[in-house]
Design goal:
The protein is mostly helical. 90% of the residues lie in helices and 0% in strands. It has one domain: Helix Hairpins (Orthogonal Bundle). The protein contains 4 helices and no strands. Bound molecules: adenosine-5'-triphosphate (ATP). Adenosine-5'-triphosphate (ATP) binds next to helix 4. The site of adenosine-5'-triphosphate (ATP) has 10 residues, from helix 4. Belongs to the bacterial diacylglycerol kinase family. It is a multi-pass membrane protein.
């Protein structure tokens, strides 16, 4: 009984994730970017704590995007018309996504900065060989 309801809840959660990925281009972009970053992090063998920070930043962005989508749907359910409160609710939710995205950008720059520096120096040394 408990097992069955857990399975159902898990199914609903997966359906929500699938809906967000199917209908939100931003969510697909976040997923693609996350895959690229995780592969780069594994390839560069970044430190465990840095890897956790990267995973946390990715999760925050995706969660914010999903809450934003959920809120948009609820607002649309409540009012099909223009309403200043609907605008505030949607704009605030969009602002949360922006904050999470900025955080992930900062985390990415801090964690990958040493590798970016090596890469830039490598490009410079290749460019200066003429
Ligand atoms: N009912 C409404 N009343 C007032 N302003 C709204 C309303 N619906 C949307 N807006 C304004 O339009 C912006 C975009 O809303 P919209 O729901 O189209 O979001 P979206 O990011 O394009 O999402 P999606 O494409 O997933 O529906 C909101 O941030 C808000 O400023």
């Amino acid at each position: 009984m408990v097992k069955g309801s857990f399975r159902k809840s898990f199914g609903y959660a997966l359906a929500g994730l699938a809906y967000a990925l199917r209908t939100q281009p931003n969510m697909r972009f976040h997923l693609l970017a996350a895959l690229v970053v995780v592969v780069a992090a594994l390839w560069l063998r970044i430190e465990g704590r840095d890897f956790l920070l990267v995973l946390l930043a990715i999760t925050l962005v995706m969660m914010a995007e999903m809450f934003n989508t959920a809120l948009e749907r609820v607002v649309d359910l409540c009012t099909g018309r223009y309403h200043p409160l609907a605008k505030i609710a949607k704009d605030v939710a969009a602002g949360a996504v922006l904050l999470a995205a900025l955080n992930s950008l900062i985390v990415g720059l801090v964690v990958f900065y040493p590798y970016l520096l090596v890469f830039i120096r490598l490009l410079q040394s290749l460019g200066g060989d003429d």
